[in-house]
C-alpha cells in the first residue's frame, strides 16, 4: 500500500519531465505527506492540451457516491479496472502523483519502524493514480498499488505502481480507455532502481512536522 510519502522536487522541474504546464505557485517541500490532505497531481483533460499539475485531495470518492461513500487512498492494480467503484476512473481519469520517496513500516515492529523507500539515484518517482470529481466539485485521487517488488518487498508486501518514463504519456492520455491497451502500453520501473533504509519514528505522526531530517537514516 502507500499511506505516506515525501515530495520536495520543485514543481517546475517535475512539469518539464512530463511536458506539463508550470503551475503559477510553487508548493513548499513536504517530507511527511499524509492522506486526507491536498497533494500535487498531474492529469490531462484532452489529447490536444498539455498535462496540468494541480492539487487533488488524497482520498478518492466520486460524486455519485456522495459524502457517505468510502474514501480509499489506494486502489489495487489487480482490480482497479473492474471494481465498480474505480473502473470509470481507470478508463477515463488517470493521473500521476509525483513523489521523491515513500514510507512503509516493518510488520509487527514495536514501536512501528518506518523505512524510507526511493530511487537509488534520488530522482523523483511518478505513481500511477486515478481521480474523480468529488461531491464538492474538487478532484480526489487514489494511488494504484501492486505487489511488492525488489527491496521494497522487504518492508511491505504492497507498493505503489511506479511508472517508467516511457509510460507516463500513455497513462495520462485521455483517448486511451481500453484496459488491454493500457496494460500493453504501460510498464512499471525496474525494481532494482529502488532502495530503502530505516528512519526516525517521528514519521509515525504527521503532526511532528515536515523536516528534511525525517528521511535521514535512523
TrEMBL record:
Gene3D superfamilies the UniProt entry points to: SOS response associated peptidase-like
Membrane spanning residue stretches: none
SUPFAM superfamilies with a match to the protein in the record: BB1717-like
The entry's keywords: Covalent protein-DNA linkage, DNA damage, DNA-binding, Hydrolase, Lyase, Protease
Class in the EC hierarchy, top level: hydrolase
Entries under InterPro entries matching the protein: SRAP, SRAP-like
Keyword Secreted on entry: no
Record's keyword annotation contains DNA-binding: yes
Highest taxon of the lineage: Bacteria
EC code: 3.4.-.-
Homology family: Belongs to the SOS response-associated peptidase family.
Protein name as annotated: Abasic site processing protein
The organism of origin for this protein: Vreelandella neptunia
Amino acid at each position: 500500500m502507500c499511506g505516506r510519502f515525501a515530495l520536495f522536487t520543485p514543481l517546475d522541474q517535475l512539469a518539464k519531465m512530463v511536458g506539463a504546464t508550470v503551475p503559477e505557485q510553487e508548493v513548499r517541500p513536504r517530507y511527511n505527506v499524509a492522506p486526507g490532505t491536498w497533494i500535487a497531481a498531474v492529469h490531462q483533460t484532452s489529447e490536444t492540451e498539455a498535462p496540468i499539475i494541480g492539487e487533488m485531495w488524497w482520498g478518492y470518492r466520486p460524486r455519485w457516491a456522495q459524502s457517505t461513500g468510502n474514501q480509499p487512498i489506494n486502489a489495487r492494480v489487480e482490480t482497479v479496472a473492474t471494481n465498480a467503484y474505480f473502473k470509470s476512473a481507470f478508463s477515463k481519469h488517470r493521473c500521476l502523483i509525483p513523489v521523491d520517496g515513500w514510507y512503509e513500516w516493518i510488520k509487527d515492529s514495536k514501536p512501528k519502524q518506518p523505512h524510507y523507500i526511493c530511487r537509488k539515484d534520488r530522482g523523483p518517482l511518478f505513481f500511477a493514480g486515478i481521480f474523480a470529481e468529488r461531491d464538492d466539485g474538487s478532484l480526489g485521487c487514489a494511488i494504484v498499488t501492486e505487489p511488492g517488488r525488489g527491496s521494497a518487498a522487504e518492508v511491505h508486501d504492497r507498493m505503489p505502481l511506479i511508472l517508467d518514463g516511457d509510460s507516463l504519456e500513455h497513462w495520462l492520455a485521455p483517448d486511451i480507455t481500453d484496459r488491454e491497451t493500457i496494460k500493453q502500453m504501460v510498464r512499471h520501473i525496474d525494481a532494482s532502481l529502488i532502495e530503502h533504509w530505516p528512519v526516525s519514528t517521528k514519521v509515525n505522526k504527521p503532526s511532528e512536522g515536515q523536516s528534511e531530517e525525517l528521511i535521514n537514516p535512523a
